Amino acid sequence: MKNRLIELIIEKAFNYSEEPVFKLVSGKLSNYYFNCKAVTLSPEGIYLIGNVLYDMVKDLNINAIGGLTLGADPLAFATAYASYLKEDPIEAFVVRKKAKEHGTMQWIEGNVKEGDRVAIVDDVITTGKSTIEAIIRAKDAGLEIVSILTLIDRQEGGREAVKDVGFDLTPVITRDEIMKVYNLDK
């Protein structure tokens, strides 16, 4: 499934240029760009991601999986769906970018409560900023973070930034793995 996921990412989500022409959220220009929504919102991508991530977390005894909206949402939902099909339900949750301004004014949506064991996910990690924001919000809500996962590690310092706040990050796929297959296809 991981190999097919790499192929799907190259087919639908990956752009490469010899010159750094892709502007990232950080403002930095890069040779690589991953628009993961084309994969994470596709039927085959949902199936593959849900199963791959479920296999990565199934033995962690977690209550829920989620991260900062919007990148983490399809990953968390796919994993929750796959877990239910395997009769081992794991809840999905969403970390808002801004606290809800009415009602309960929550940062986190979903069936999670203080003390729950969770995995934090993100679609792509570059600097680690979004992932760290999700970590901070989850910790503030009293969630016990037991795993940090990303679909793609761009290998540009994000993993190290997450390590600096006390967590190991496990990628499903690295930029190097993508480039290896991408270069073979040329």
Give a written overview of the molecule:
It is a single chain. With 186 residues, the protein is α/β, with parallel strands linked by helices. The protein has one domain (2-185): Rossmann fold (3-Layer(aba) Sandwich), CATH 3.40.50.2020. It is built from 7 helices and 10 strands. α3 crosses α4 (73-85). The chain starts with a helix and ends with a helix. The model has no long low-confidence stretch (mean pLDDT 95).
> From the helix content, strand content and strand pairing, which structural class follows?
alpha/beta
Order of helices and strands: HEEEEHHEHEEEHEHEH
Total count of strands: 10
Taking pLDDT < 50 over at least 5 consecutive residues as the criterion, the unreliable ranges are none
CATH topology: Rossmann fold
CATH architecture heading: 3-Layer(aba) Sandwich
Largest sheet: 6 strands, mixed
End-to-end Cα distance = 22 Å
- Give the integer mean of the pLDDT values: 95
Per DSSP, the total helix count is 7
CATH class: Alpha Beta
Radius of gyration: 16 Å
How much of the residues is beta strand, in percent? 25-35%
Shape: globular
Number of domains: 1
Q: Largest sheet, order of strands side by side?
A: 7-6-5-8-9-10
* Oligomerization state: single chain
Can you give the helix content as a percent range? 25-40%
In a few lines, what is going on in this structure?
The protein is of the alpha/beta class and 186 residues long. Helices cover 39% and strands 26% of the residues.
Itemize the secondary structure elements and their pairings.
Elements (H helix, E strand, L loop, with lengths): L1 H11 L1 E3 L5 E2 L5 E2 L1 E3 L2 H4 L2 H15 L6 E5 L4 H13 L5 E5 L12 E3 L6 E9 L3 H12 L3 E10 L4 H7 L4 E6 H11 L1
Parallel strand pairs: 5-6, 5-8, 8-9, 9-10
Antiparallel strand pairs: 1-4, 2-3, 6-7
Helix pairs in contact: 1-3, 1-7, 3-4
